[in-house]
Design brief:
Ribosomal Protein L22, Chain A, alpha+beta, Ribosomal_uL22, two-stranded antiparallel ribbon, about 260 residues, Ribosomal_uL22_sf, about 30% helix, Ribosomal_uL22_bac/org-type, Large ribosomal subunit protein uL22m
């Protein structure tokens, strides 16, 4: 009988702070350098043609509790499913990821790296603009959680203050509920807002003119992941001058003379 552990509990492998040897960081629980580990993870994000993509079928090795996705927001069974609950992420779906159970020391076959512990946290339905909150989320994306909280304290606006409180709640939850030994070594893997509903009001102007006001309410989703971030923002790291030069030389060397012998 195979043994499983709950992802939010302490695992047999001690995922402690990132080890450093001669200034080089290593991926938690392995002897693989952090740069090489993120290079493998970035390779999965690169777009590929369908004919060149290798389809790998794996058996289900994790456990997740049964959950009826066709329930309404109040929990009752309804025939009509709200499109937002079916097609987009919701706080219920986000919290559901915390209940996934993986085998001990499970290694992702696509990258050859162990699955790190993650904490999913959400603050529901508060009044703020989703566009302004998106700017604050992009500011702390892939940043160390302690550094993100410190930087948000210097930006005195409502969105940064809310995001700072949510990150502190997620960090505290990682230590108390999920038993992460070093929550300060986690980084902000994801942070994004989603608009949940709009409350419309009305404003009276001169000469009997009335115009609607839209009070937007949003959900704020945060995911903390153990270890350091990749050190760059975006799908791929930006190329420096040396990388561009190597690519240019590669293009020059691959030139061919058309209709040559």
């Amino acid at each position: 009988m195979s043994c499983y552990f709950i992802a939010r509990r302490s695992s047999p492998v001690r995922f402690c702070s990132i080890n450093s040897v001669e200034g080089e960081n290593f991926y938690p629980g392995t002897d693989i350098s952090l740069k090489e580990a993120w290079r493998r993870r970035v390779e999965l994000r690169k777009s590929k043609l369908q004919r060149e993509e290798q389809v790998l079928l794996y058996s289900k090795v994790y456990y997740a509790p049964e959950w009826n996705f066709y329930k309404g927001f109040a929990g009752e069974d309804t025939e009509h499913v709200y499109p937002l609950a079916r097609n987009f992420i919701t706080p219920e779906k986000w919290e559901y990821y915390n209940k996934v159970v993986w085998p001990p020391n499970y290694v992702n076959p696509e990258t050859g790296l162990p699955i790190l512990r993650q904490v999913y946290h959400c603050r529901e339905s508060f009044h703020y603009s989703p566009k302004r909150m998106w700017l604050a989320c992009q500011f702390v994306w892939r940043m160390n959680v302690d550094e993100a909280i410190l930087q948000l304290r210097f930006r005195q606006n409502k969105g940064c203050n809310i995001l700072k409180d949510v990150l502190e709640e997620a960090k505290q939850r990682a230590h108390n509920e999920f038993h992460v030994e070093y929550p300060s070594d986690m980084h902000v893997a994801e942070a994004f807002p989603l608009q949940c509903h709009i409350v419309k009001g009305i404003r009276r102007h001169a000469r009997e003119q009335y115009y609607p006001i839209r009070y937007r309410y949003i959900h704020l989703f945060v995911r903390l992941e153990e270890g350091d971030g990749p050190g760059f923002k975006g799908r791929e790291p930006k190329k420096n001058g040396w990388d561009k030069m190597d690519e240019h030389f590669r293009i020059l060397r691959n030139r061919k003379i058309k209709y040559s012998i």
